[in-house]
């Protein structure tokens, strides 16, 4: 525990006196440390593409000036690095927006069934590139939850996107939406959205940390796939804002299940 002690002068009946106030600032300090870490991480994440871009600009001005093939190759890498930076900034903005609104629960009626179908249709061509098959099982009638449509779209997009990225080429990714039913985790009625992949799975010691910002099991792999390391942090905050729960179940070698439980009332 960290105490902040403030000393001040006060007037007492008996003459001038001193007042000491003690305040527990453990939480304030922890929040400060987190913010410092976050700024360090963001700076780090931005420095890598910036260094690459500066390096290639120099090369294009010098050695590669008259080499058309090299120029094309370097420009392709530069475009990729620029795209990575813009994805990082987009993710940082989403995270900030979600965090700012975290205290206010969104209440618009969102058709989760339609949303899941739209996301799957949108990601299908990307999955097809890796021969990943996407499927959706949803109940009738469509599932409606109170929420923010764009944010819930992002939850499904991030989870299905990860399942495609980490689920392994040629494997299946299954999205299952359940009908409303009592959810012990919520102490009330809710629905479950499960995204299941057949990838290599996640070792138990990583599970509790996966939703931390910039936590990645394999830095290089995530970067190569254009990951920012913020996807699951965004998912967690959006689910929190909806007063839901996120559960991750996985075993090495047996794929993963990302389960979002959302209240219906
Ligand atoms: P990233 O942009 O790196 O994908 P995320 O926050 O979405 O960031 O995920 C954090 C890390 O969790 C990933 O780098 C990856 O190591 C791991 N991860 C996420 N989804 C899966 C999955 N379906 N299977 C295995 N590992 C996963």
TrEMBL record:
It comes from the Bacteria. The keyword S-adenosyl-L-methionine does not apply. Its EC number is 2.7.13.3. It is an enzyme of class 2 (transferase). GO terms for molecular function: ATP binding; phosphoprotein phosphatase activity; phosphorelay sensor kinase activity. It is found in: Cell membrane. Residues 41-265 form the Histidine kinase domain. One of its GO terms (biological process) is cellular response to phosphate starvation. One of its GO terms (cellular component) is plasma membrane. The keyword rRNA-binding does not apply. Its main location: membrane. It catalyses: ATP + protein L-histidine = ADP + protein N-phospho-L-histidine. Keywords: ATP-binding, Cell membrane, Kinase, Membrane, Nucleotide-binding, Phosphoprotein, Transferase, Two-component regulatory system. This is histidine kinase. It comes from Limimaricola cinnabarinus.
């Amino acid at each position: 525990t960290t105490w902040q002690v403030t000393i001040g002068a006060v007037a007492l009946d008996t003459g001038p006196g001193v007042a000491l106030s003690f305040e527990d600032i453990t939480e304030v300090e922890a929040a400060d440390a987190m913010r410092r870490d976050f700024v360090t991480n963001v700076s780090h994440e931005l420095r890598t593409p910036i260094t690459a871009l500066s390096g290639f600009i120099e090369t294009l001005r010098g050695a590669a000036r008259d080499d058309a093939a090299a120029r094309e190759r370097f420009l392709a890498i530069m475009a990729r690095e620029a795209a990575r930076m813009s994805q990082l900034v987009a993710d940082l903005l989403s995270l900030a927006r979600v965090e700012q609104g975290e205290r206010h629960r969104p209440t618009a009626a969102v058709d989760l069934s339609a949303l899941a179908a739209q996301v799957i249709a949108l990601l299908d061509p990307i999955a097809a590139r890796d021969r990943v098959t996407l499927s959706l099982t949803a109940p009738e009638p469509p599932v409606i939850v109170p929420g923010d449509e764009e944010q819930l779209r992002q939850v499904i997009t991030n989870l299905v996107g990860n399942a495609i990225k980490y689920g392994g080429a040629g494997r299946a990714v299954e999205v299952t939406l359940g009908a409303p039913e009592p959810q012990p985790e919520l102490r009330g009625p809710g629905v479950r959205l499960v995204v299941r992949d057949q990838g290599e799975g996640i070792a138990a010691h990583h599970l509790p940390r996966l939703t931390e910002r910039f936590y990645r099991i394999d830095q290089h792999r995530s970067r190569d796939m254009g990951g920012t390391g913020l996807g699951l942090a965004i998912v967690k905050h959006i689910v929190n804002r909806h007063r839901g729960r996120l559960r991750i179940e996985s075993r090495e070698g047996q794929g993963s299940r990302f389960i979002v439980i959302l209240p219906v009332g």
